[in-house]
Amino acid sequence: MKRRDIAYEWLKLNEDKLQGLGPKRKWEQFERFYPVLYSEGGFKGLIEDISKGAYFRQELDLQPVAGVSARVYNKPVGDKFKVLIFSDCHGWLADLKALRCINKILQRNEFDEVVINGDIIDLPYISKHTQKLFPDGILKDYSEVGEIEYTKEQILKPLRHSTNANIRIRLGNHDERITKPNLLSDKQLQRLAVVYKHYQTTKLEEMLGVTGDGWIYDPTDVHTYFDKFHLVHGLSLAANASEKNIQEYMGSGSSGHTHRLGVYVKTNKKAPYVWLQSGHTRVGEQVEYFPTGKIPNWQQGFNVLTFYRHSGEWFVHWECVQIINGRCFYNGELFEG
Question: What is the pTM (predicted TM-score) of this model?
Answer without folding.
Answer: 0.77
